[in-house]
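Human: If only I could read backbone structure tokens as easily as an amino acid sequence. Take your time, and here it is.
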Amino acid sequence: MDNQESFLDEVIVPESADEDAIEHTDLPETEIQLALEAVLFTVNEPISVSQLRRIFDQEVSGHIIRQQLNKLRHFYDQHGRSFQLIEIANGWQISTRAEYANQIEKFHTRQVRVKLSPSALEALAIVAYKQPVTRTEIEEIRGVNSDSVLNSLIEKGLVRISGRKPEAGRALLFSTSNQFLEQFGLRNLADLPSVEEIQEILEQSGSDDD
């Protein structure tokens, strides 16, 4: 028998009425519990026991999966964690407890995405695809003065001054920021949407003010 103790050994779970029907596995309880927990933390919908069985390289019965899920649930309950493991819609899911709804709502209210006008989105798209780019180059593409739009994008943290162009009077160069990547859910600049997708964003934001 494996000497590794479960980090939930202190949790008491009622034994099955049919003890002879309980199947066994060579996997340590700790390994099963941590694997289940890791997967459950990465999804936002209930996962069935049959789905959870597939995460293990060797056979683990549904009975054992349910047993370890119950241990996790009791562990969270007994230790007053801010989240809970619930059985819902024929599956299992980790969710935050209702008493923390107010704090969660306050946090997400402060994380409202920045609203951009079509002109700001247009300038931002130019910077994103042409960077590093000068103010003059942006205005040549847009055909209008872009001082206020660029200043607004800089204030919002989406665009930054990234240097100076060696020629052309050492004009300032503009590039997108890390906040730009976060705002649009991009890992890096290689994940930039296509020109067509940018156009869709521009059209959908047509009602926003500058």
Remarks:
- The domain at 19-98 is CATH 1.10.10.10 (Arc Repressor Mutant, subunit A).
- The mean pLDDT is 81.
- The first helix runs from residue 29 to 41.
